[in-house]
Specification:
It contains 14 helices and 18 strands. It has 500 residues and is of the alpha/beta class. It folds into 2 domains: 3-235 and 442-489, 3-Layer(aba) Sandwich (Aldehyde Dehydrogenase, Chain A, domain 1); 241-416, Aldehyde Dehydrogenase, Chain A, domain 2 (3-Layer(aba) Sandwich). The strands form 3 sheets. A 7-stranded mixed sheet has the order 11-12-13-10-9-14-15, sandwiched between helices. A 6-stranded parallel sheet has the order 1-6-5-4-7-8, with helices on both faces. The longest helix is centred in the first third of the chain and has 24 residues, at 67-90.
Length: 500
């Protein structure tokens, strides 16, 4: 497939045409059985793997990211598509529920009511700068929107444009060869086209991963539409790590080594990068510097993803370093590929100025906060804004109950004795959190539950069986798992395919 076969919408008129084509494709695919829709996802996964030898080098050239990192991302993207395909086949994404007529229902005679999830329509997806496979052309938002039965208009990210366009070609060709309707996936490029996509009345939801400022501007624009639509934005997160006294006493060296590796991974350009570490004030500066400096010297350095990100990182790092009570423990550098920076402060300073805990430094920099008593940790945690993750390092003798409850209130994922920079794709995964981590804290952008963002439930009351969606017909022609009269039934033998 050549670049000439990929239509790229760059003007308002071209977005208009792409949106109409995507809507037509959505309508054409609306009645497709789960097995067919799942087959489209599998075809894209296979195409990504088959073209990895071309796509990964393009990613290296575009982003400065290591080949191994990009290979892992592509593998993740393909796996995610196949995992979602299994969910589609099983019928889980449809959440079909049937309540038969019941004259003896507890609150009076009950009519026949049947509910099923239906796709929203055309979904606009913004590619992310920091994950050119996992959160871009066929990343989590695009994959889950297709799994939901939606069409996708993808806004490519300028930070890896060559890779994005070639990936889009691979996706379009795979969908076409699998028999999907033409226009089910298309791309837009440039700010005018992006604004036209967000404003278009046929676009029914937006997925976004990026900065707090950019995401909030888009959120406001979506909310100002004559018909506001869901905006699923992942904006910013500090991802605090709290080390309790007994854990610190027994394994401080391991904790500092793990922390150094986590906050420098990918040059600190992960949305789950730990940006602040709380430790007991028994930790001396000499101990901290002696443990962190050698570990940070081993961290591989590379240019940040874009010049704009490099400038923003420097400004954010210097801004936090300029707060009263904050000083450099490990100063880092101002090189084009900056060496890591560790800033040091204490609980009194962050109590006086909670902004120290709220400034995201998207790059290789972090803040260490020393505290005098673990009793103050819930209070310090409460001073933070919404987070994607929060981590506790504790041993059996540590009392983490109050802190765990507090972190449950501010974070979407709470880790115990681990590091947040690994985000597996699974059924139970939750990648979201209260604002500003995301604009929709009840949802996730990673894992099988991500599909639910792009569906809505519709109930049918006393509708004749022949007129119903096949997911709700008595014979269960699609062979999916359903909840009937309050009890879950298994799909008929030989129908559907179990999720992994």
């Amino acid at each position: 497939m050549t670049a000439a076969t990929l239509t790229i919408a760059t003007t308002t008129d071209e977005v208009e045409a792409a949106a109409k084509s995507a809507h037509a494709a959505f309508l054409s695919a609306a009645g497709t059985d789960p097995s067919t829709r799942a087959g489209w996802l599998d075809a894209v996964a296979q195409a990504l793997r088959e073209n990895a030898g071309e796509l990964v080098p393009l990613g290296v050239a575009d982003t400065h990211l290591a080949e191994a990192r990009l290979q892992g991302e592509l593998k993740r993207s393909a796996f995610q598509l196949e995992l979602l395909a299994g969910e589609v086949r099983s019928g889980v994404v449809l959440d079909a529920v049937i309540d038969h007529t019941d004259p003896d229902w507890g609150m009076g005679p009950r009519p026949d009511i049947r509910r099923v999830n239906v796709p929203l329509g055309v979904v606009g997806v913004f590619g992310a700068s920091n994950f050119p496979f996992a959160f871009s052309v066929m990343g989590g938002d695009s994959a889950s929107a297709l799994a939901a039965g939606c069409a996708v208009l993808h806004k490519i990210h300028p930070g890896h444009k060559t890779l994005a366009l070639r990936t889009a070609e691979v996706v379009v060709e795979a969908l076409r060869n699998a028999g999907a309707p033409e226009g089910l996936f298309a791309v837009v490029d440039g700010r005018p086209a992006a604004e036209a996509m967000v404003d278009h009345p046929l676009v029914k939801a937006i997925g976004f991963t990026g900065s707090t400022a950019g995401g909030r501007a888009l959120f406001n624009r979506v909310s100002a539409r004559p018909e506001p639509i869901p905006f699923y934005g992942e904006l910013g997160s500090i991802n605090p790590v709290f080390v309790l006294p007994e854990a610190w006493s027994s394994r401080s060296a391991d904790i500092l080594s793990g922390y150094a590796a986590s906050f420098t991974m990918g040059m600190g350009q992960f949305c789950t990068k730990p940006g602040v570490l709380f430790i007991p004030d028994s930790a001396t500066e000499d101990l901290l510097r002696g443990a962190l400096a050698p570990a940070l010297e081993q961290a591989p350095l590379a240019k940040l993803l874009t010049p704009g990100l490099r400038n923003s990182f420097g400004q954010a790092r210097d801004g936090v370093a300029g707060f009263d009570g904050v000083r450099a423990l490990v100063p880092g550098s101002d090189d084009e590929a900056p060496s890591p920076t560790v800033l040091l402060t204490d609980a009194a300073a962050v109590r006086s100025n909670p902004e120290i805990l709220r400034q995201e430094m998207f790059g290789p920099a972090t803040v260490v906060v020393r505290y005098s008593s673990p009793a103050v940790l819930p209070e310090l945690a409460q001073a933070m804004e919404g987070q994607l993750t929060a981590t506790i390092h504790a041993d059996d003798a540590d009392d983490a109950g109050d802190l765990l409850r507090t972190l449950t209130g501010i974070a979407g994922r709470v880790l115990w004795n681990g590091w947040p920079t690994g985000v597996t794709v699974s059924h139970a995964q939750q990648h979201g959190g209260p604002y500003p981590a995301t604009t929709a804290p009840g949802t996730t952008s990673v894992g099988t539950a991500a599909v639910g963002r792009f569906t809505r439930p519709v109930a049918y009351q006393d509708v004749p069986d022949s007129a119903l969606n096949p997911a709700l017909q008595e014979a269960n022609p699609w062979g999916i798992r359903r909840r009937v009269d309050g009890r879950f039934d298994d799909a008929p033998s030989g129908f559907g395919e179990a999720v992994r």
